[in-house]
């Protein structure tokens, strides 16, 4: 059974799915980001232990503040969105009608946690400069 | 604002297919990972994180409780972070996350690759990656 698309890529990119679609696509980006990051992080840490400079080089990129902020976005969004999906899916009869409100609550919690995490990364980086 | 109506069908009528099993697996492993993260946060606080670790350092430790994740913090003695208990918690989190992730990557890629042969290769490469990375990750956790 093959996949049949009835829209072009440009039409797909202009799809205005609003809030629920945004969380769907960010969940995928976050998940793929983490899968790629964790795979490379394990491989680089392993080869770093064997004395290969490439492992040290990659882990230095992972320790840099911009990359940490990116990966924290992936992790925190994926985790919070995943929790929302799980809670709604486990109690669909009672909760699915409130799915848009659940997304709003999710964004508020995410904004608080992510800004706290980003500030923590930046202040640690500044403290280490001194 | 339009409200979505719940469409639910009892498991007895729907039947337990591989897809249904993996649907439940994905959600239950998500809850299990929250359990591991909470254990890591509480453990870090008991071991003195509030005085010597930043929020992000606690988060990094809680995500995978590997002793290498506290190396760059100001914790004076990191040996309690490398105990047998924490290596077991890290192994549990790593195996749960990687099995959840392998399935997730296949689900995502299936949406962009339609041919049966492409989907077969996606599965082969993903499983190959899983069986290469899994022992390396466990090796790093237990030798750190």
Estimate the strand proportion of chain A.
Answer: under 5%
The dominant shape of chain A is globular
Structural class of chain A: mainly alpha
Number of helices of chain A: 6
Number of structurally distinct domains of chain A: 1
CATH architecture of chain A: Up-down Bundle
Beta-strand percentage range of chain B: under 5%
Mean pLDDT of chain B: 89
Helix content of chain A: over 70%
Describe this structure in words.
The complex is a heterodimer of chains A (130) and B (144). Helices cover 84% and strands 0% of the residues of chain A. Chain A is mostly helical. Chain B is mainly alpha-helical and 144 residues long. Chain B has one domain. Chain B is elongated and about 55 Å long. The N and C termini of chain B lie far apart (53 Å). The mean pLDDT of chain B is 89. Chains A and B meet through α2, α4 and α6 of A and α2, α4, α5 and α6 of B.
Give the topology, please.
The complex is a heterodimer of chains A (130) and B (144).
Chain A: H1 9-13, H2 18-49, H3 53-63, H4 65-90, H5 92-95, H6 99-129
Chain B: H1 11-14, H2 18-46, H3 49-52, H4 55-63, H5 84-110, H6 116-143
Task: Characterize this entry briefly.
The complex is a heterodimer of chains A (130) and B (144). With 130 residues, chain A is mainly alpha-helical.
Using brief descriptors, characterize the structure shown.
heterodimer, A: 130 residues, mainly alpha, 3 helical TM bundles of succinate and fumarate reductases, 6 helices, 84% helix, globular, B: 144 residues
């Amino acid at each position: 059974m093959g996949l049949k698309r009835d829209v072009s890529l440009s039409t797909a990119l202009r799809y205005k799915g609003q809030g629920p679609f945004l969380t769907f696509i960010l969940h995928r980006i976050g998940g793929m980001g983490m899968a790629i990051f964790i795979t490379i992080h394990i491989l680089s840490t392993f080869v770093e232990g064997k004395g290969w400079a490439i492992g040290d080089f990659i882990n230095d990129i992972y320790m840099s503040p911009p990359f940490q902020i990116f990966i924290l976005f992936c992790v925190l969004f994926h985790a919070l969105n995943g929790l929302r999906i799980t809670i709604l899916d486990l109690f669909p009869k009672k909760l699915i009608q409130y799915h848009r409100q659940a997304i709003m609550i999710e964004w508020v919690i995410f904004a608080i946690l992510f800004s706290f995490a980003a500030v923590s990364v930046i202040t640690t980086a500044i403290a280490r400069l001194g | 604002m339009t409200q979505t109506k719940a469409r639910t069908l009892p498991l007895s009528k729907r039947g337990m297919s591989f897809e249904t099993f993996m649907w439940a697996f994905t959600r239950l492993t998500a809850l299990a990972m929250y359990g591991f993260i909470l254990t890591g946060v509480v453990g870090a606080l008991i071991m003195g994180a509030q005085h010597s670790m930043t929020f992000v350092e606690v988060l990094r430790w809680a995500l995978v409780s590997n002793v290498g994740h506290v190396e760059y913090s100001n914790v004076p003695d990191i040996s309690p972070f490398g105990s047998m208990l924490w290596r077991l918690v890290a192994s549990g989190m790593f195996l749960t996350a990687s099995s959840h992730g392998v399935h997730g990557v296949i689900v995502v890629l299936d949406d962009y690759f339609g041919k049966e042969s492409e989907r077969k290769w996606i599965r082969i490469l993903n499983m190959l990656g899983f069986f290469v990375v899994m022992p390396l990750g466990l090796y790093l956790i237990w030798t750190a």
